[in-house]
Amino acid sequence: MADDVMERDVSVLEKERVAPVETLRRSDEALRLPAVAPPTALPLEPPLVPQVGEQTRAVGLRAQRPDSRNHGLGLTRYIDDIALPGMLFAKIKRAGVASARIVRIDTSKAEAMPGVKAVLVGSEIPVNSFGPSLQDQPLLAAPIVRHAGDGVAAVAAVTEQIAEAAIDAIEVEYEPLPGVYDAIEALKPDSHKVHGGDTNVYASKIIKRGDVEKGFAQAYRIYEGRYYTPGIEHAPMEPFTSIADWDANGRLTVYASIGRITLARCDMSRTLGIPISRIRVIGTVVGGNFGGKNEIRHEPVLALLAKKAGRPVKGRFTRVEEFVASTIRHAFTMDYKTGVTKDGRLIARQVRMVLDGGAYCSFSETTLGKACILSTGPYEIPNSLAEGYVVYTNKTTAGSMRGFGAPQVCFAYESQMDEIARDLGIDPIEIRVRNMFREGSISSTGQVLHSVKVKESLENAVKKFGWEARS
Amino acid sequence: MNVTITVNGEVRSASVPPETTLLVLLREHFLLTGAKTGCDVGDCGACTVIVDGKAVNACLMLAGQADGRTVTTIEGLATREGLHPLQKVFEETGALQCGFCGPGVIMSSKALLDEIPNPTTAEIRNALAGNLCRCTGYQKMIEGVHEAAEMLQSTTTPATLATKTPATPALAALPQR
Amino acid sequence: MKPFGYVAAQDSEHAVALLAEYGKGAKLLAGGTDLLADLKLTPHPPPAVMVDISRCADLKGIAITEAGLRIGAMVTHSEIVNSPLIRDTLPALAEAALSIGAVQTRNLGSIAGNLVTCVPSMDSGPTLLALEASVTILGPSGRRTIGLADLFVGPRKTSLAFGEILVEIVIPKRNVGKPTGFQKFGLRKGQALALVNAAASFWAGEGLFTEPTIALGAVAPTVIRAPKAEAYLAGRPVTEDAMAEAGRIAATEAKPITDFRATADYRRDLVAVLVKRALLAAHGRATPNRKDIAS
Amino acid sequence: MKRRGRGIASMWYPVGFTVAANPSGAVVKVNEDGTAVVLTGTVETGQGALGVLSQIAAEALGIAPNDIHIVSGDTDTCPMDTGAIASRTTYITGNAIAAAAAEARDTLFEVASQMLGVKTSQLEAKDHKIQVKGFPARSAPIADVALRAHLVNGTPPIGSASWNPPTVPLDPETGQGKPFGTYVYATQIAEIDVDDETGEVEVLRVTASHDCGTAINPMLVEGQIEGGVFMGLGFALQEEILFDKQGRQLNPNLTNYIMPTTLDMPVVESDIVDSYDETGPFGAKAVGEPSLVPTAAAITNAIYDAVGVRITALPATAERVLAAIKAKRAMEQKQIPA
């Protein structure tokens, strides 16, 4: 591909108004200066600046956000709006195969391309693993590829176009490995083990209160159901982007659209093998997070490329990378078994859930824990047992996403609640009120709850909606 | 190739490779970074700008296709006198959250209000269907366009209204799909 | 995007000349909404040069001519949506155009661009096919006119020879004003790709289905007609039951595939529903005098 | 034919990390003119956190939100913060900022007590003044107090604090313990139409009532609720990452990964429950994540209400709903005796 680009016969193109392939020769590395200044005179009147005056309360005000004016003017500087002098553009080559061993990587053609300033493979990374709980995720796969979005090599070049051509020019030879692509399959003893060992289960959780068997024995009826929710993409409008920049003293500054700069700094320190204090992380305004920008993705790779090239390096995910190389919401398979009394009181609930963790751990443990704790729903159930497992598969890594397992279990427990209400002929509002937490209720973990407002929320919603009971 | 466009009222030229999109021309050559790169293939609308009065995806138009045309970006909306009503309403009501989609949403809304000064909710929803937003659920944006329309109309004298392009027949007149 | 060259054609003759000049490395650029997105995503090499025809004035315009309703190749979807002429005579065409993409892409994308992608799910196809449109093609050896159905060869494959361009779409005069309905079903309401789309058209003189036509999209390698369903309707009294039966027959004529968007069975179910609804929509537009006005 | 249905779902959701430490630090510096700068390590991710945190700091100092400037998201200049995750910013970072502001305010009280001749315990900060409780006329403008603190007393009013919610680790065998500082609650009701010929579900409106403790900024709370319902609607009806048999995504783009557009979104009727949590800053808890939690169940319960089919696997695409409707019809026909 790159050869094709480089060696294309340009004679056909050297005709009027056709200015082809010049990009590759162009290498205009100088910082471009602004050609058009925004016509807006700043600051605008009336100014959004401190005003001294009467002010009785700040809390409870429908106050204008401090960033809203810049947002509306298009002046908010997101990370992709920042360019440092001499900055290079990085691209990461994605495996495209979900389970394989890298036999050989040949980066020589990429390195020889004009405009390419640095190339990096996984073996060059000081500590090639990261993760918020288990450090099981490589920055660039070496030598095992565990999902199709794994990076295998990276390039920094003077333009994005050259970087793209360069990663196309990197040759990677894979030895295919067996794979496992389904969470339930991954539980089987003979399934492919994504990280070796004898199981794909990498975290489990039990939340147990009372005695569910006793509860079921006393139940008037027992309801059982399986519920499934799929993998979901965060899809923030801003793709994941970072810039790495070293100073001459060996201090690294990373600009990143990341919601957790302290964790990011620790992860970078560990992977790069430099002290935490030598790294500065500047979290730029995040263009949508939803849990997808809670940890590093490529920053150490950019830092190493920047170090090699001696110039700042920006990396911006394409929209496709945003899907395949970021994390996603865990797909859940949930078995719910609930015992109720004749008047619709929940007296026992057993939940078993299997989470598809994808190739690496990320925030799986937290997600699993929250899901198990919350699986009773906002209801007082004297006997409950939740057990959950999260398994590796050769799929996109599942991590934190808005709700951490709560939307999944809520879908299950509220669907089943509806079934129970209909089967028992109890109004769906009434059955919830009968079971709901109240001030001082005990949760599934034995916690005494305070400021419990679930009944009020139900009453308000019913009133606002105009829900009328049907006979 | 050389490209000359009138952007936000100023005539500008640049020499760019032919495969340069209007979005790259604006962001990298003119440093007008208001239009955003969200998907780069016309799905998200974060790059929306107005070319010759029409809202378009700047990522799907070559710089060469914009040659000689008039382009308005988010940076060209406010004047020295103040904010455009859309900007005013959006900032006051919290219509934007992370704000990344905002420049596109505002430009789509502007193109709509230029064409239909008093749009229905259905027309607003239709005009913004090409602008994905992951934060807001669109509600405050839709309300904000209504409010901005009212502001614009209250400041427009009947005489200037009459000189405006006649409103095209309401899209809502077409049966819903 | 990978490097390529660019040249703007002044008119259709110029475009044909440029294609001849640059040869196989050249590719026509219309609105660009499909082509540029494809170029950014595909690993394949780009064309050597883009011949931009979006500015050709002779490819613009919507008008009634001797032959019928002429829509220039480079007319955008928005122009169709907003055309008083089309809204008045063939509102289903405007509905179909309105169902494409979003405002931004409709402002760029052209009707001919949509047709020559030749994707089975194109939204411009069914209505035009149901109205028995023809297309005019300009090539090195001059002009030729073919039925729209003959343009479609297979998925992403048209009968255009290299060096030819599509210059206009003509709906025959006899069908201008013919009551027509368009229906589309996608996975969401905005920016939807059709799982199935359908158009139906008929005159309802004396309460009978007269010259009924039905066209289906996204359920075969190209947009297709449903001749058996059409034959079933011809001459039958206009009733909802007949429309439903025509839908069921059309479903047997569809040859949909299963992909990640939907199964073939579901697409067949949709064909039955959408054909019925398209016929109902057409019926809603049928007024006894309409044919006289048109002819 | 379209069939109308309604469905309800309630939920609970915790604030902050599960047991694990997730502290926030904060520094509040009162300027010479009585305005203040807040340093926080959290990052604005769009939810309006910096606005909310400004309002908390302003409330504590008796000044206006616009009097606060926040410096955030820089590991060199800002105190440690666990970050914008787990709906923790208002509750945890807010508590840290409220405490840091109170510390800075204490310095102002010391200066003002000399100026006003009363004990510091008799003072309050309100309306841009340091005033005697119960005697607001006896007061000094906060700008005067601040300037005096800086330039006369030599005690610049600077406060720093950190906060981490108190928890009790979970027993590894039973999971019993106190994993979170507090929880929020919500109920949503969806009204929908189901097209029983295509299976298409149209959500007409969603009523969403949320407990978030004190709403520091109701407008931003509404924004979170509306956005949460949007994401919940996508989860319920449209969104799904599809994989081929080799583990590769089939729809990794915004063309084929279907999320709601303006044309798909219903009207959201937000309601904020009257609530006050004494462990939160000025009674506040959280709203960020919870707003999407109950939406899917409310919608699928409404589908059941409309057409009598139970969707147990999300998303409830039109194809899945139609398949369920057809299965139900087939079952009913079998049950009708010949």
Question: Could you characterize the architecture of this molecule?
Answer:
In chain A, 26% of the residues lie in helices and 23% in strands. Chain A is an alpha+beta fold. By secondary structure, chain B is of the alpha+beta class. Chain B has helices at 22-29, 63-66, 85-93, 102-115, 121-127, 139-155, 158-163, and strands spanning 2-7, 10-15, 48-51, 54-57, 70-72. In chain B, a hairpin with a 2-residue loop joins β3 and β4 (54-57). The longest helix of chain B has 17 residues, at 139-155. Chain B is globular, with a radius of gyration of 16 Å. Chain C folds into three domains: 5-52, 2-Layer Sandwich (Uridine Diphospho-n-acetylenolpyruvylglucosamine Reductase, domain 2), CATH 3.30.43; 59-175, Uridine Diphospho-n-acetylenolpyruvylglucosamine Reductase, domain 3 (2-Layer Sandwich); 180-294, CO dehydrogenase flavoprotein, C-terminal domain (Enolase-like, domain 1). Chain C is 37% helix and 24% strand. Chain C has a five-stranded antiparallel beta sheet with strand order 4-5-10-6-7, sandwiched between helices. A four-stranded antiparallel beta sheet of chain C has the order 11-12-13-14. A three-stranded parallel beta sheet of chain C has the order 1-3-2, with helices on one face. Chain D has six helices and eleven strands. In chain D, α1 (49-61) packs parallel to α2, α2 (89-116) packs across α3 (142-151) and α4 (218-238) crosses α5. In chain D, the strands form three sheets. Chain D has a four-stranded mixed beta sheet. In chain D, strands 4-3-2-8 form a four-stranded mixed beta sheet, covered by helices on one side. Chain D is an alpha+beta fold and 338 residues long. Chain D is 30% helix and 24% strand. Chain D has two domains: 2-14 and 184-335, Aldehyde oxidase/xanthine dehydrogenase, molybdopterin binding domain (Aldehyde Oxidoreductase, domain 4), CATH 3.30.365.10; 26-160, Aldehyde Oxidoreductase, domain 4 (2-Layer Sandwich). Chains in contact: A-B, A-C, A-D, B-C, B-D, C-D. Chains C and D meet through α12 of C and α6 of D.
